[in-house]
């Protein structure tokens, strides 16, 4: 079993925690945009209270371990590995509860190139434990506004994990999974599940809009969040997101494998 000490060392070596690649400038920009309720940063969450930038800095210092000094405006950001480890334990506990109850679950990611393996392993383990891993709206079209204008994507599932793909070029097959923060994919999935009268998820697992979009609609949601993702941590602070694990969500995909082993062991789920 991967111990806490070994995982802490891995978090620091892989820069999942400690000094991370996300810059302070990028994080502060996200806090400013969230304070202005920019939908690109609220990603499906409608905050209950007014969050000023200084409030968000204080929140992210508490939840992630970033500097609480507003005069610190440049350089790499920092995540406290102890906060990451504590949140991973809470994350695993919630997965274990879902497994015990054989709850229907929905998993989705806006980081398919980095995190599909992490979530797919969770989906496999939850399915083996008797949970129904839902795949609603498979193949449906989702129109998402990007910086390049309105783009059409297709909702797809890989090993039980939802993602969106750009439509394939004729004769070239499907397009690749794309990075998105949008809550529209999870809204489409949940609406489709409700429309067909199938089971609704008792737990949504993911990142970005998958977590915030589900939590805003009243579904229990847990996931991963970086220092420039204040919406997830605001959702947690306001009670609409159950657990957010602070870590860099864009490192090499194989760097998440020790986290997978740790979470599954803590949740007493087979790998």
From TrEMBL:
The lineage of its organism: Bacteria, Bacillati, Actinomycetota, Actinomycetes, Kitasatosporales. InterPro entries: Phosphatase_SCO2771. It comes from the Bacteria. It comes from Streptomyces aurantiacus. This is Phosphatase.
